């Protein structure tokens, strides 16, 4: 029975009820040791079983915190017979970590998707409650996979509860429940239930501070007149109490308790095998069992509380701990289990141990358990004898940490490797890893310098690879000198790079030479990632969107979840330029969700550029400025372009012009996004009656448009010429080019300006056509201030705008839009789920919510809707 836990029980009851009703949810129970988290999970398990839910349980084990997928194996072991029901890539990922399949070739987050699908499949037979205790001790790979699944629960009839201590197991995005300390009345009832004499209760209640485990342990301690230090915090005093109890055991019993604590998983046969080599055995556990500190079954040893195991381990001398781990390593039949004990059993350099640890790291990396791999490689380096091996393993440790979404750890490991290799030149792999970590940490300029400095001293092939990476980094930071230097060095090495050379020319505003090189590079598409960025830079919107969509589809099909955020970023940018704002927001929302899971915080900042521009077009000033303000320094050019557009739309032309002129004199002045703001700069200058301030940007725009070969760019340039020259033929030519497609927002702006020009020329009848078209496009795009301006012009011609009919998909959420689009194309719920990293039941839930908004009742009707 639980005492004083009515609030916490109500929260858990609500979660269980949601699962019974067809919904899902996840909850984190967080609190200090002994506060009653395990008891709450036990109550939830009993309550769920009574109501007919299937209960799955996982417990994090402190000694297994670095053992790849140890926690997830607990979850999957009883469900192995269901794995073949999953999509093939997901089934292969789970079989691999169970040692029943191939171990290479999948993305680390495919495992999390597979867990979600497995739980959803299990819930088709009835609601499921998944309980994870001591989550702070889950290995990182298991925690990552379970959290990935938990964050995507929606309508699967699955409830997940994680119990964890105060520190460790960060789970942003999940609801947290923090059990309170017991009040005096509840504490007294608990002590009475444990038959504590009334004379002791008041003192024990005062000392325990409402911690349930402390109440029980302090009461027991008072019976034997224990004197644990009163100055310690309650959890530390409980630990001290357990140490005192263990200290009173016979020496042989203490050794057996240490073996059990060091082994950690409760594997009695393994413990006895190790014990035999140390001269103790099963009989020596009897005193600990009689004291109530452990429980022994036929094959499992269980500590009464994790703190008992901690006390047994920490209370032993170092030499004895080393001997125990050595015995466990020798007794183990599993190479991964052996590798788990070897670091603690090795106090001096040992080439053989180092090789074993490196092999275990390679196996962990093959299963995408990158955090475990990083730790194992680091441990291998620690005990390595050869300096070259040390450097190699530290480099691999850094690369694994980076792949695991931990750039800070990767940077530290890379620096350690460089200290070992000094004063010799670090190799290309180490340099690339360190530079990538620096870039992800926001140290873009330092990453560029590192690559350039090392490239000149490296072998030609390796140096060329460093310089190509450095060009991309330097472009994003607006480092003109670095881009130019890299292009020149590549040419000098005999490895000229069209993209580097093209960007170098763009940095110097030599568009006539730079843009054709980039156009050719995109056409050849030798490198998909670089081609995607090239397409954005030159404004080849249709080609970029097609390439990004194909690459996103490939990532989805192969389960390459970690690679998706940057692909979706490019896709969202292309969708934005194409006027597909809803689709762009949906792509950003998906990318942000995945980036949060993969630790790519830098990517989230870049993604905000898309939503900031949409807010600028909509005239949502607060949101636009908030997004720009939260962006990093490397975002300066993008932020200036977005705010300039916002201010032109709101009629603050002076602020826009001053901002954009300042941006053009700073770093990143030739960035593609800033070039897209030149029309705003020109319009602001003309509106202010200062056409001389439009001359230089107009020349730049004309040169860019002519060299790019993009119809939309030439149309915008002609519009700006018309704006500055008052020449109608430029408007007419611009509209003919706009008809070829691309950038509808710019098309509508041309129609608006031409309509304004016609009205001022006292030709209201002719002005109405372009103004009606402008209102229609602006309304569809949600460009509120622009639509208002076009509407005012229409009224001035004596005509009201036509009634606008919202698009069928206007009321859908980004997720619903994704699902509906795929369903309309004929894909099944299972296929949609695999593409969007959801469960089939959640797909059906989104369709159920979308049908009323679209005015349909079935999938068949979706194909008849225009969902753009």
TrEMBL record:
Q: Which domain of life is it from?
A: Bacteria
- Where does the record place the HTH luxR-type domain? 805-868
Keyword Cell inner membrane attached: no
GO MF terms held by the record:
DNA binding
Does the record carry Cytoplasm as a key word?
no
Q: Identify the Gene3D superfamilies for this entry.
A: Winged helix-like DNA-binding domain superfamily/Winged helix DNA-binding domain (1.10.10.10)
Q: Which InterPro entries match?
A: AAA_16, P-loop_NTPase, Sig_transdc_resp-reg_C-effctor, Tscrpt_reg_LuxR_C, WH-like_DNA-bd_sf
Which UniProt keywords are given for this protein, alphabetically ordered? ATP-binding, DNA-binding, Nucleotide-binding
Name under which the protein is recorded: DNA-binding CsgD family transcriptional regulator
The species this protein was found in: Nonomuraea africana
Q: What is the lineage of its organism?
A: Bacteria, Bacillati, Actinomycetota, Actinomycetes, Streptosporangiales
């Amino acid at each position: 029975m639980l005492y004083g836990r009515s609030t916490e029980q109500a929260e858990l009851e609500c979660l269980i009820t949601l699962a019974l009703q067809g919904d899902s949810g996840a909850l984190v129970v967080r609190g200090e040791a002994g506060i009653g988290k395990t008891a709450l999970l036990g109550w939830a398990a009993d309550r769920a079983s009574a109501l007919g839910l299937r209960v799955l349980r996982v417990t994090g084990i402190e000694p297994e915190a670095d053992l790849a997928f140890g926690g997830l194996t607990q979850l999957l072991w009883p469900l192995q017979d269901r794995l073949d029901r999953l999509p093939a890539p997901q089934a292969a990922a789970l079989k691999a970590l169970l040692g029943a399949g191939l171990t290479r070739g999948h993305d680390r987050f495919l495992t999390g998707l597979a867990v979600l699908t497995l739980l959803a499949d299990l819930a088709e037979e009835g609601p499921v409650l998944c309980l994870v205790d001591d989550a702070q001790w889950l290995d990182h790979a298991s925690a990552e996979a379970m959290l990935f699944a938990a964050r995507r629960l929606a309508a699967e009839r699955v409830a997940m509860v994680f119990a964890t201590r105060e520190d460790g197991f960060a789970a942003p995005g999940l609801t947290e429940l923090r059990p309170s300390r017991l009040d005096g009345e509840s504490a007294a009832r608990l002590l009475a239930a444990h038959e504590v004499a009334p004379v002791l209760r008041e003192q024990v209640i005062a000392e325990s501070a409402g911690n349930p485990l402390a109440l029980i342990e302090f009461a027991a301690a008072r019976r034997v007149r224990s004197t644990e230090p009163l100055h310690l915090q309650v959890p530390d005093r409980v630990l001290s109490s357990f140490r005192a109890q263990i200290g009173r055991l016979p020496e042989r019993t203490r050794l057996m308790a240490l073996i059990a604590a060091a082994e950690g998983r409760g594997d009695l046969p393994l413990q006895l095998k190790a014990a035999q080599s140390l001269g103790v055995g099963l009989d020596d556990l009897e005193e600990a069992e009689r004291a109530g500190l452990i429980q022994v079954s036929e094959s499992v040893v269980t500590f009464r509380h994790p703190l008992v195991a901690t006390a047994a381990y920490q209370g032993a001398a170092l030499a004895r701990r080393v001997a125990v781990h050595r015995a466990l390593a020798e007794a183990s039949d599993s190479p991964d289990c052996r590798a788990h004990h070897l670091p603690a059993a090795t106090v001096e350099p040992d080439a053989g141990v180092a090789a074993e640890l490196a092999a275990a790291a390679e196996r962990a990396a093959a299963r995408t358990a990158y955090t475990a791999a990083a730790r194992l490689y680091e441990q291998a380096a620690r005990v390595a004898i050869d300096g070259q091996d040390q450097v190699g393993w530290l480099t691999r440790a850094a690369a694994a940490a980076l792949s695991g979404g931990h750039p800070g750890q990767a940077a530290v490991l890379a620096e350690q490797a460089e200290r070992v290799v000094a004063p010799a030149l670090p190799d290309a792999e180490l340099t690339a890893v360190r530079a990538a970590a620096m870039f992800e940490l926001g140290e873009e300029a330092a990453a560029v310098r590192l690559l350039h400095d090392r490239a000149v001293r490296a072998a030609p092939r390796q140096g060329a690879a460093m310089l190509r990476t450095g060009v991309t980094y330097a472009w994003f930071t607006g480092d003109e000198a670095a881009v130019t230097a890299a292009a020149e060095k590549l040419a000098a090495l005999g490895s000229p790079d069209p993209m580097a050379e093209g960007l170098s020319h763009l940095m110097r505003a030599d568009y006539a030479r730079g843009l054709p090189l980039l156009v050719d590079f995109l056409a050849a598409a030798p490198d998909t990632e670089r081609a995607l960025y090239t397409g954005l830079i030159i404004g080849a919107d249709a080609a970029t969107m097609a390439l990004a969509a194909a690459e996103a589809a490939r990532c989805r099909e192969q389960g390459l979840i970690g690679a998706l955020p940057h692909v979706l970023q490019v896709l969202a940018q292309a969708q934005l330029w194409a006027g597909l704002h809803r689709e762009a927001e949906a792509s950003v929302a998906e990318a942000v969700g995945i980036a949060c899971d993969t630790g790519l915080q830098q990517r989230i900042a870049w993604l905000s550029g898309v939503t900031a521009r949409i807010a600028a077009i909509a005239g949502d000033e607060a949101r636009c400025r908030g997004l720009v303000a939260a962006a990093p320094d490397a975002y300066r050019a993008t932020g200036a372009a977005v705010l300039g557009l916002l201010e032109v739309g709101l009629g603050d032309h002076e602020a826009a012009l001053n901002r954009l002129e300042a941006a053009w004199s700073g770093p990143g002045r030739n960035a593609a996004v800033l070039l897209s703001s030149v029309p705003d700069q020109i319009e602001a200058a003309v509106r202010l009656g200062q056409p001389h301030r439009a001359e230089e940007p107009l020349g730049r725009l004309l040169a860019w448009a002519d060299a790019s070969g993009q119809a939309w760019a030439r149309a915008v340039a002609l519009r700006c010429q018309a704006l500055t020259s008052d020449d109608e033929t430029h408007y007419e030519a611009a509209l003919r080019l706009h008809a070829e497609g691309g950038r509808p927002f710019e098309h509508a702006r041309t129609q608006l300006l031409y309509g304004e020009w016609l009205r001022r020329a006292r030709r209201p009848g002719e002005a109405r056509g372009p103004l009606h078209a402008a209102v229609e496009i602006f309304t569809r795009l949600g460009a509120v201030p622009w639509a208002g301006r076009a509407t005012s012009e229409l009224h001035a011609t004596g005509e009201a705008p036509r009634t606008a009919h919202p698009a069928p998909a206007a009321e859908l959420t980004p997720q619903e839009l994704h699902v509906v689009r795929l369903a309309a194309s004929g894909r099944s719920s299972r296929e949609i789920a695999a593409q969007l990293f959801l469960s089939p039941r959640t797909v059906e839930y989104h369709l159920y919510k979308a049908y009323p908004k679209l005015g349909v009742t079935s999938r068949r009707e979706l194909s008849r809707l225009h969902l753009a």
